[in-house]
Amino acid sequence: IGDSKDFDREVKSICPFCGVGCQVSLKVKDNKIVKVDGINGPANEGRLCVKGRFGFDYINHPHRITKPMIRRNDAPEKGLNVDPANPWTHFREATWDEALDLASNGLVDLRSLYGGKAVAGFGSAKCTNEEAYLFQKLIRQGFGHNNVDHCTRLCHASSVAALMENVGSGAVTASFNEIEAADLAIVIGANPTENHPVAATFLKQFAKRGGELIIMDPRGTAMKRHAKHMLQFRPGTDVALLNAIMNVIVEEKLYDRQYIEGFTEGFFEFRDHIRAFTPDRMAELCGIDAETIRAVARDFAGAQKAMIFWGMGVSQHIHGTDNARCLISLALLCGQIGRPGTGLHPLRGQNNVQGASDAGLIPHVMPNYQSVTDEAVRELFRHIWDGTEIDPTPGLTVVEIMDRVYRGEIKGMYILGENPAMSDPDVDHARKALAHLDHLVVQDIFVTETANFADVILPAGAFPEKSGTVTNTNRQVQMARQAVPTPGEAREDWRILIELANRIGLDWDYDHPREVFNEMKMSMRSLHHITWNRLETESAVTYPSLSNEDPGQSVVFGDGFPRRAGRAKFTPARFTPPAEMPDDRFPMILITGRQLEHWHTGSMTRRSKVLDAVEPEANCSLHPATLRKLGVPPGGWVRLSTRRGSVTLMARADRSVATDMVFLPFAFVEAAANLLTNPALDPVGKIPEFKFSAVKVESAEAV
Ligand code: SF4
Q1: Sign of the four-CA dihedral 94, 406, 362, 143
Q2: Which site among 117, 123, 293, 667 is 20 to 30 Å from 424 CA-CA?
Q3: pTM, full prediction
Q4: Are 120 and 401 in contact (CB under 8 A)?
Q5: Is the CB of 198 under 6 A from ligand 1?
């Protein structure tokens, strides 16, 4: 995929990678995508990053599964033991009927023998809203419980928990494009240049026209050169730093008294709590001097219009919910929500993680974040789902499900498009758990690391091979359109879900994703005034949309919050250190994350020629001084070890990493970052602490 001008049709759709949700024009010749251009979508205004422009050719990779596959009788014990050049070596081809019968009978047998809770499901944020909705419905209706989750658990579950608790909604309060009207922006725990590159261009333009950018991150991000303040604070001290900033605002009475009185609750308790976090006391802990903390506090409080952006550096901690609570409190203190150019914006990860969450692909809430514990909600779904009884007990989350699998309590899984054999923390534990399963059905486009453990693999359609709606980080519901057919016998996910649902005893009758969308509208107030036809013609509508003509509200909560008495809440946050601290054995800090060219576990981008050529091999980043101390040249090999495991890989010199820190991308199976990560969970969001593990770094030659 490159610069071809020779194409016979063009299809408007959405980029399959990050949550920015760039609209693309896919140029197609002979049923192959030959070129990709950015078009004028509300989020990208014609722009694309390297993944969106050059990353679509994964769909043509020779490793695509084009026929259903069944584990061979003579295959060795389940494990990550296949030849990467021949990933289906332990599987044989099957007909759809044979594969679907085996898949469904295995799940039904477990349900009959042990009850519905013997089976759990992971859905995918790479699916459309309709597919996510169908997946959670299949588990809830077919197995009678809520043990269904997806990768939101690994990225922004803590942010969503804090937003739901304190502002009454789990989505952003303002689109990132509102930055055009802002005076000041904080970007904390996020590296948009690499992870949300098109959103980053808007942030850079903001800084270039004189907007004040404040970056807070333990790593020095590329965006720091545009920043007025760069606070490279000690990893894991977010709560201490943010509370110290708010301490200044409270003590110097810089807060917006009128806004606090009119729109919030809990201020006085919060004010008393914050008094202990003086800049002088917190400076050493955070590694940021007290005067800088005061300067940032005064700048933020003095701004007319300010926005706060955050990423997984905030959320992926055992105190991730507390981190997000602090950011919400900071915005409330200064009345920076509900007006153009103000707001809270957690930058969502996958291209449809917002939509999949909205559609109920999470264990404690039904579509539109309606609690399973609420009888009125269960009655609504009893009505819509033909008498289905919804389990009133919130379900288990991703890591909790994998623990139950390990302990033998969950015996079967249906995994659609997720790759826990790469993405779970302490992934050796997750791989052992997957190997324990009596029955594993994987639906995907490649034999992923997780599919290695499957009994049945159902070949699915890639994102450009199907139509449906998706929702980006800005709350923009957009229409993705099928550009090319699924290869061989592969089918779109929604079609496979319907086949499987009917084989496990459900009576589903959908002929088109439009019918699923219309059913979703029956329970999702967020989709009011958004119709399939509107999306076909307008391509994107932001929710909430107030009328059939309204393109949607970019900024929400100007006249109150969807909480008791319309008020948002201050929730005090205590400082909690990371779950494991460096010590003599493991003296450094490991932070994991993404790289510009590679997406999550690499199953797509490592099969894209251009992206793989730019970043072909596993690497980690260390400060040049650390490399010198280790006696390792840039490009040399190091061994990283934590209490959970070790990996050996190439080291890159990177001054943005502190001398006691190593940054490790998680896309590379040959040096899987999650062999090292700590599975400790945030108690509220149940998100693992991917952003802090104690690690030992050595020269690989010395080992
Ligand atoms: Fe795709 Fe995100 Fe890049 Fe846009 S910024 S082209 S959505 S990866």
Answers
A1: positive
A2: 117
A3: 0.96
A4: yes
A5: yes
